[in-house]
Amino acid sequence: MHCPYCRNEDSRVVDSRTADDGAAIRRRRQCQACNKRFTTVENAMLMVVKRSGVTEAFSRTKVVSGVRKACQGRPVTEDDLALLGQKVDEAVRALGVAEIDAHDVGMATLEPLRQLDEVAYMRFASVYRSFDSLEDFETEITLLRAEHDAATPESATHVGHK
Fold this sequence. Notes:
The protein has 162 residues and is of the alpha+beta class. 44% of the residues lie in helices and 20% in strands. It has a 3-stranded antiparallel sheet, with no helix packed on it. Strands 5-4-6 form a 3-stranded mixed sheet. Helix 2 crosses helix 3 and helix 3 (102-116) runs antiparallel to helix 4 (118-128). The longest helix has 18 residues, at 134-151. The radius of gyration is 23 Å and the shape is elongated.
């Protein structure tokens, strides 16, 4: 770590604290040459392994961008997308791994997206679950209907279903 004042490479840690709910460490450092103090923040990087084998840093922005396409024309706000991105970020970091497959990031996106908008969920799921036929769509719709039926009172179980 170079001192931002004199560019010396030797500094000592004066104080360390967690930041961002434990996702980062904030350190106060003191330069051994000029004695000035400065702060650094260390973040653990989560790397995503793409299908091509290339690795890149996890990006909540990329998750939101991919979901935004599935939500085109749907009543989903930017705030909704930001919250979904946060949920996916928390879910993949909670796995406690340093690297995750891009496909697994997509799979972690499915449940928060299903809760947000079922049409967007079906669009997204068709890609990440590799739907090959109408039967794949029908199976997923049947599962969604079963969840709705289980969540509604007995008297309204089949209301609206044909």
